[in-house]
Amino acid sequence: MSRRTTLALSGAVVAALALAAASRSWTIAAPQAAAFAERDLARRYGLALSVAGPATVTLLPAPALRFSGVRLSRGTHDLVASEGLQVQLGLAGLLAGRAEITGLVLERARIALPSGAGSDWAEPAARLAARVAAGRGRHLRRLVLVDATLTGRDPRTGRPETVTGLNLAANWPRPSAGLDLSADFTWRGVPAALTLSDLRPREFAAGAETPVTAALAWSATGPHAAEGSAEIEGSLVWARTAPADDAAAGGPGPRLSGQGRFATPALPGTLAWLGIAPGPAALAGPVSLEGRFAAGPGGVEWPDIRVRIGDNRLEGAGAATLARGRLAVTGTLAAERLDLSGFMPEPEPGGGWSRAPLALDGLTRGDLDLRLSAASARLGPLEAQDVAAGLLVRDGTVEATLGRATVQGGTVKGRAALAVLPAGLDARLQGSADRIDLGGLFADLGWPRWILGRAQGSVALDSAGSSLADLVGRLAGRAAATVEGGEILGLSLADLAQRPEAAATALRRGGRTHFERARVSLTVNGGVAEIGQGQVRGGGLTASLGGRVFLAERRLGAEARIEPGPDGRTGAFAIEGPWLRPAIRPLAVRLPAETSPTKTLPAAASAYAP
Which residue range or ranges hold the AsmA domain (predicted)? Predict the structure, then answer.
């Protein structure tokens, strides 16, 4: 072997040994190593470093100090307690004999989050912001947390909050570059993942606008499931003062604007996870919204928003604010088609009124002022067009208004209000209808089509109770209806006014009574509607109606009498039984003198309206 070859091999061996030595961890004196790193932490951030365990140093792939049993403190208060800490150092500073920390890795750290402007984090945060904004010195390029725990207090309520299992990696390679961050954690029992990119710390710290892209996803199953995602792409700025024309600003602080998207298959569960009273959102199922937004400490505004609730798609504008954990939402939305059938209560077995307790707690924990319009809408079996409606929830009350709707060729308007009482609810209903096609309406509702014609009417009712059965049983108020140019199916008043032997055919199912006008007025008290004025007029005949409608039992107890015609003939019949399928029973027939008294109506003659 030549001398040159021997020297080359020796050099390679020495280099390999040096590389191996530099790659190994060497145990060093912990107090001196901690004091060396602490000088940079104190100069930059005002933090003190104490180490309880051993310390090691590694030169490759990058110079780093490793400590065990670490505490970062401000004065006498510990801000961070970590089982392990890796301090990454800049090579140039190390060669010059000083520490220049470029990265931190904290293992199983317990971090106390700041709890206000006067917290122990205020001074370190202010120093960091000033250095970043000025671009002075080397910056922290990398921060890693492994299985960390964060503790703090909810700024809205002051209650303690804890984030567990936090794994975070933040990279900021150059002062002019953007910050990239990814994290996964568990908060309030729900696992979540966060990613953030494009944020420029220097611009943000200087009060300038910076781009930002962020995505958050969360998912948990069980009785209190919370699942969903949120994405934003826009700009972020820290405003020193609140803009005068920004209703959502809420004071100095961060302002975020741009395009955003939010989606969840279970809105009540997600809001409960966030600590927000769901209010009317308790009724909602899968929800998504996307559009242009502007957010500040006081809330968020959507000047352009698209909302999807179940199969309903709406567009418009809205805003939301949060104060002391109470969510307030306003919005004006429009849709081509709305299906509100999911908001209807399930019918009771047997068709009775529900005795389940009624409460507004799940609806009035938040505030809502919503204006809706739709080209067409469906509520259960009922179809409507050209709908304008509103929903107002505030201070223990729920008020729904129907500004207008076209139902079966006619116009419907109304207002319903519910308010909390010490022993239940107070309910009020007002409404009017004009030119409604009764035959089509009954067909939509699945009711027997026993009367046809164009109807108009009004209603004003109120009640109080703890269940739907209570409310119906205590109804009071007035109602009136008029039907023009219609007919009654299953009954022929003309035949009934004829000879007694023809009375049986008057009650056949194929009978019809055409009329010019039918009207009825009701006075309701204690769940019983008294028929005050009822009259049917047409075909040379006039019939009057009296009796009662028992709303709680859904039963009729009425009597109709045909007023005497020119020949003195008359008739009477009872309308009894379930209000949707009542039985029509003849009462008596007044016969003229020439008619034989022995010819009477068979006792078994009766019929049912279809």
Answer: 360-530
Residue 242: the pLDDT is: 55
Say if CB 286 and CB 310 are below 8 A apart: yes
Regarding pTM above 0.90, the answer is no
How far apart CA 345 and CA 379 sit, in angstroms, is 11
Rounded CA gap, 340 and 384, in Å? 11
Question: Residue 477: what are its φ and ψ, rounded to 5°?
Answer: 145, -155
Q: Are 267 and 289 in contact (CB under 8 A)?
A: no
Q: Which helix (H) or strand (E) holds 7?
A: helix 3-23
The residue extents of the domains of the chain are: 21-220, 223-343+356-374, 433-608
Size (the chain), residues: 610
Cα first-last separation, the chain: 118
Q: Which of 335, 336, 307 lies closest to 320, judged by CA?
A: 307
- Specify which residues 254 forms β-bridges with: 238
> pLDDT over 90 for what percent of the chain?
40
Q: How far apart are CA 225 and CA 512, in angstroms?
A: 58
User: CB 118: neighbour CB atoms within 10 A?
Assistant: 8
- pLDDT beneath 50, residues of the chain: 5-22, 247, 500-504, 590-610
Q: For the chain, what percent of residues have pLDDT higher than 70?
A: 80
Provide the H-helix boundaries in 81-159.
91-95, 122-134
Distance CA 284, CA 288 (A): 11
Alpha carbon 415 to chain centroid, angstroms: 23
